[in-house]
Amino acid sequence: MAEKIVLFGGTFDPIHIGHIEVASAAAEKIGAGEIILIPARRSPHKNLKPLAPDNDRIAMMKLAVEDKSLFEINPVELNRAEPSYTIDTIRQLKQSLGGDCILYWLIGADMLESLPKWHKIDELLNECNICVMNRGGFEKPDFDKLAPQLGSKNIEKLRKNVVETPSIEISSTQIRRKILNNEDVSKYLHPEVLNYIKIRRLYAATD
Ligand code: ATP
Q: Is the pTM of this model over 0.85?
C-alpha cells in the first residue's frame, strides 16, 4: 500500500505547540506514518520584527520534535534558490521520497483565502492533497467563496480533504509580541524551545 506522508510548511518563527498538536492530530486522522516539517523562506517585510535567523528556526524545530518519532524536518525550501513555490517542493519531495507515496499538504484555515494565488494551483491540487485545518481564532473555511476562482471540482476535493484538528488559539506573531513585552510564553512552547529562545535572546527588543 502507498505510504501516506503529511507535509507541513511554515515559517515556524518560532515553532509552537499549536503546530505540533494540529500536525499530530492531522496525521492520525489521515493515517500517515510520517510528518515532514518544511521551514519556509520568510518575507522580511511581513512580520513584526525581530525575527529569528534560519539556523535558529531549524534548531528550535529540532528541539520541539526530538522526542516525537513521527516528525522530520526537511529544509528543502531554504536550500533552493528563490522564488519558493509549493509545487516545486512537492515535485522535489516526490522524487526524493520515491513514487509510491501519497502526499498531504496541511494548511491552517487562515491560509485558504490566498490559495487561488498560489503558483500553478491547479497542478498543485492535482499532485497532492491540500488539507485545510480549522484554526482557533479564525473563521471556519469558506469554500463557496473560492469556487469562482478554483472551480467546483477543486472545491469538492478541498472540502473532502478538510481535517478536523483541535482548535488551538496560538500564533507565532502573538508569541513574538509577548516575548518583546516580557510576557510569559511558557504555555505556548516546548520547554527546550523556550530555553533556546532565552539563551539566544531571540525576539527580544534591540536598541
Ligand atoms: P505567524 O503568526 O508568524 O504568521 P503562525 O503561527 O501562523 O505564524 P506559521 O509558521 O506561519 O505559523 O504557520 C504554518 C502553518 O501552520 C500555516 O498553514 C498556519 O495556518 C498553520 N498554523 C499555525 N498555527 C496554527 C494553529 N494554532 N492552528 C492551526 N493551524 C495553525
A: yes
